[in-house]
Amino acid sequence: MGSQPRLHRLSPNPVKLSAFVDHIE
According to the model, what pLDDT value does residue 14 have? Predict the structure, then answer.
């Protein structure tokens, strides 16, 4: 259970990742 949340935190949702990259650019 400790590895599951860690992996989820490292690999956020694609939608959130796209918004994050768009915000940086």
Answer: 67
